[in-house]
Amino acid sequence: MKKRITESIFVALGVLCFSSCNIDIPKEKHTSSETVVVKKQRIIYPVKYSVTIVGQNDVVITPRTSGQLERICITPGQKVGRGQLLFVIDQKQAQISLNNATANLQAAKAQMNSAQLEYESNRDLCAKGIVSDYMVKSALNALNTAKATVAQAEAAVNAAKIEMGYCSVTSPVSGIIGDIPFKVGTQVNEATELTTVSGNDDVTARFSIDETTLVELASEKKDLSLKESIALLPAARLFLKDGSEYPYKGKVKSMSGVMDNMTGSISVEASFPNPKGTLLSGQQGTVEFDFDVENIMTIPQAAIVRMQDKTIVYKVGKDSCAHSVIVTTTDIGDKNKVAVTSGLKEGDKIVATGAANIQENQKVIFGKDE
What we know:
Largest sheet: 10 strands, antiparallel
Radius of gyration: 44 Å
Order of helices and strands: HEEEEEHHEEEEHHEEEEEEEEEEE
Low-confidence stretches: 1-30
Shape: rod-shaped
Structural class: alpha+beta
């Protein structure tokens, strides 16, 4: 009995000693985390693509005759109308050809008039029996030959006028003048690209889009064709290089019929109105689509743990323990959330905060359950 009392006294003294020395007694630690239940929901999903702007009526201007540039009537960036004079090529040789053709035509007409008089004279004389019928027919043949010569001469004049017209290069469309890499006096020919006229009342934004993304995000109906899915794409917003948003929205109008085997994407074109001519061919920017998507699972960014090349989320089991699962995610333009495309299902409970401190099979005390 005395021994038990002595042991109790020693225990009590030990406790008092620890207390008096301000020594903390270790306590049991618990990890507190918040959880969320994975649910499917409707989201607005912004998707961006880099684009190049081209005029819908870009026309390369080339001369249709050879010669030296005599005049340049426009400047780069100038807005021109259809039929407006752009360049003048040296007309001297064309003018000489036209003068010669005109002179030949006048000579042919004079010859035809003489043949006409000869024919009428022989016809009258034949009626009086003075000349034979043979003379009349010969005169008629000469007249027909003279008429054919006149027709040929007229064709030559028309050809010379056309060649003369080629010396004046006009714009086939209304638009904006591109670069002009030549100076007055430059020798040009039919293969010389003098400039480009960008018919930019409407412009096209060209970009590439992934087929899988297009089919899955553009439509929930899997029986739709790719072309039908594109038709359901929302209006496009255009952002310029300086970050400003273009005031007019565009619409996807066409797609390439061939998939690029290297990139797994197709070329798409969106049309934008350009009434003020502010968009120029060759500009670059970004086009953005706001997809309205239903039945998408999203989770907090804080729930994700990156481990080398894997993305891990801790799912809470029935045993209240955390179990890691590998998931695949997609950015939805929200700094706080991501979409989950595989690894989880609706109704799963996951660790939403403190996931970086969780260990496999660790039992967690949940501070908040959402």
